[in-house]
Amino acid sequence: MAESNSPKTDVKTVKSRIAGFVMGKAGAGDASPNRIILLRDTSGNGTVDTRTVFLDHLYSPFGMALIGNDLYVANANEIVRFSYHDGDTQIKTPGTKVVDLPAGYNHHWTKNLLASPDGSFLYVTIGSNSNVADNGMEVEEGRARIDKLDLSTGKLTPYATGLRNPNGLAFEPDSGALWVVVNERDEIGSDLVPDYITAVKEGAFYGWPYSYYGQHVDSRVSPQRPDLVAQAVVPDYAVGAHTASIGIAFSHDATQLPDAWRHGLFVAQHGSWNRRPKSGYKVIYVPFADGQPAGMPIDVLTGFLTSDEAHVHGRPVGLALDRSGALLVADDVGNVVWRVTGQNP
């Protein structure tokens, strides 16, 4: 599990300082520990009994992918490969840089990783530098997209673009399609623009910064690009405006949860910082049928936000299923990993 936070290299404006203050009040302002912690349940009883610092001296790490004996870690500025062997509790040998990633200013600093099923490629999420190209398109070069890294050549190429802040990645088990959750833009109202989950079409453009949810033009962006707006793909499913949905996990192997939650997608919603009333601060389940969303979202894990919205007890971030089929939820305000199980009604 990554213990991490922003590298604090964002552009310093009045707006960014206000946003930093508000997010700090929600528990998001701590300095980055820059390490990966290993948590193990050696007895199989659902409780961690081994906790070690697995990797240290990183740079705002976020995504990880294990392929054979190679552990890939996405820092805010690069992907690094480390040698790993089953049973290791700590890695002390230096890593090898695989490829640089867009860094410098890091308004959206998290870089996530997902290995292709055959282990030949890594899919890499790279968020935008700003809300809607506020600092010019020059500093957005190589950002707001998903890249594909060929591990045999080290070549990094665009896979899909126009994604403001893509985060969680997962393959849908029935279709094999790559899915992503994306945080959309701010400052055009409490109900716009919804964050979304979508199957990722290779070569597709999803609108940012020129439009949202297909061809809805964002007039704040200059110069306009009607040629790109005409190409913008409509995402598959909205998960609410400003929910800051970050982690996703398909539920097919969630054998410790009710059968009704076994054919869909879990989504961790970190929670809004600039919306009234607040949104997110929970884990939801989106039912699927034939490889596509097929119904309204269902609350799975709540209680992180008090009813008067005065206190935040936690903010869900990462999701995974353990070997027993329970859902694991990383909470970066409560500093807890929750293990969620349930019985059939």
From TrEMBL:
Domain of life where this protein originates: Bacteria
One Pfam family matching this protein: TrAA12
SUPFAM superfamilies in the record: Soluble quinoprotein glucose dehydrogenase
Residue stretches making up the Pyrroloquinoline quinone-dependent pyranose dehydrogenase beta-propeller domain: 60-189, 232-340
Ranges that cross the membrane: none
Matching PANTHER family: LARGE, MULTIFUNCTIONAL SECRETED PROTEIN, LARGE, MULTIFUNCTIONAL SECRETED PROTEIN-RELATED
Protein name: L-sorbosone dehydrogenase
